[in-house]
Amino acid sequence: MGIRKPAKIFYLVIATVGVIFLVLVTPVAAQGKQVVGWLEKVCIYPGNLIINAKLDTGARNSSLNASHITEFVRNGKQWVRFNVTSRYGNTATIEQKIHCIVKIKDHDGTPQLRFAILLGISLGSFHKEVEVNLADRSYFNYQMLIGRSFLHGNVIVDPSIKFTTKPICNGVPR
Predict the structure, then answer these.
(1) How far apart are CA 147 and CA 7, in angstroms?
(2) Could you give the angle at the alpha carbon of 68 between the alpha carbons of 90 and 170, nearest 5°?
(3) Please, what's the b/e burial string for 128-167 (b: 16 or more CB within 10 A of its CB; e: otherwise)?
(4) Which residue range(s) make up the domain with 119?
(5) Is 60 exceeded by the pLDDT of residue 29?
C-alpha cells in the first residue's frame, strides 16, 4: 500500500517550501543578533562585577539589586553610592551620578520612587550603557533584571535556554 504519487509530490512540495522559508527568513530575523537564554551572567560597569540576570522582554528598563543606597552631592550634582554583591560574595561599592528618579510599580502594584543611573552592562561580547533603576531585589531569585532598553535590536532571547554566554569584562570603554 504506500502513499500515492500525488500525495508524495504534495508532501515533497510542503517540505521544500518549509526548508526555503527557514533558509531565507531565519537569518534575516537573527542577522547580527546574539541568541541568549532567559538567564545569563552579565558584567556591570563600573564595578567590574559578574552577576546573574534575568532577561525580561516585558520590562522596559533594567533593575539592579543595590544595598546601602546613599544620595550625596558632588560638584553641585546629585550622586548615589550603593553596594552590589554577587551571589559568590564579591562586593563592589559604586558611585554614579543620578540620571533621574523613576516611578515603578512594585510586584503588588504599589508605586515606588527609585534612583536611576546610567550603567554599563556586558552580555557576552555585547556592551551597552543603559538606564538602570536601583532597588532592593534581595527577595528575588536574580540580582538584575535586564529590560528591552538593553535588549532591543541586539539580542534574541530564547526562553528554552539559559547561561549560554560568558560576559567579557576586560577592556570595556567607560
Answers:
(1) 48
(2) 35
(3) bebbbbbbebeeeebbbbbbbebbeeebebeeeeeebbeb
(4) 34-158
(5) no
